[in-house]
TrEMBL record:
Protein name, entry field: G/U mismatch-specific DNA glycosylase
Tree of life domain: Bacteria
Positions of the Uracil-DNA glycosylase-like domain: 19-185
SUPFAM superfamilies membership: Uracil-DNA glycosylase-like
Family matches, as InterPro entries: MUG/TDG, Uracil-DNA_glycosylase-like, Uracil-DNA_glycosylase-like_sf
Keywords: DNA damage, DNA repair, Hydrolase
Keyword Glycoprotein among UniProt keywords: no
Length: 186
């Protein structure tokens, strides 16, 4: 993992856009809400210490070992990728407007149609509800598809989402992993 970013690097990251970890025909495309300043400064998805994405991904059975954010491109070899609903970095996801999330949802749907992952897994129920106009959506498998891509919503793995404990996050990620395995044998 790269060194902890300085205050100046964090401030400069407010204009950062992280490139997707993406290629066509993935098994699962994980979609964050938007990158935080820490991730923007390092150029790595889910990079902030305390973010539980990488541990939940491993505990849920998606990776053979716990990956460091600096190893994010190893996901492609496992049939996995990462993108975001909104590309711009912020200190907190609640800095995003509803309009920004809805526009991000439209852009995400276009990206999904282009790259055709088998599953889209949005990490963050509140952002999903706004981005896709589904105010009553719950964590888990959704009734909607984007093109032929099935949609699943996972809890936000941020350390700020404390009511989702590490074991509950692992269980939620594991449910998606079992669905992927059952439907596609991967």
């Amino acid at each position: 993992m790269p060194a902890k970013p300085t205050k100046a690097q964090l401030a400069a990251a407010s204009a950062a856009v992280l490139p997707d970890v993406l290629e066509p025909d993935l098994d699962v495309l994980f979609c964050g809400i938007n990158p935080g300043l820490y991730s923007g400064a390092l150029g790595l998805h889910f990079a902030r210490p305390g973010n539980r994405f990488w541990p939940a991904l491993h505990a849920g059975g998606f990776t053979p070992r716990l990956l460091d954010p600096s190893e994010q491109h190893e996901l492609l070899g496992l049939g996995l990728g990462i993108t975001n609903v909104v590309a711009r970095t912020t200190a907190r996801a609640d800095e995003l407007s509803g309009d920004e999330l809805r526009a991000g949802g439209r852009a995400l749907a276009a990206k999904v149609r282009e790259y055709r992952p088998r599953w889209l897994a949005v990490v963050g129920i509140t952002a999903y509800r706004t981005a896709f106009g589904e105010p009553k959506a719950q964590v888990g498998r959704q009734d909607r598809t984007v093109g032929h891509t099935r949609v699943w919503v996972l809890p936000n793995p941020s350390g700020l989402n404390a009511h989702w404990t590490a074991p509950r996050l692992a269980e939620a990620f594991g449910e998606l992993r079992r669905a992927v395995t059952v439907e596609y044998g991967t």
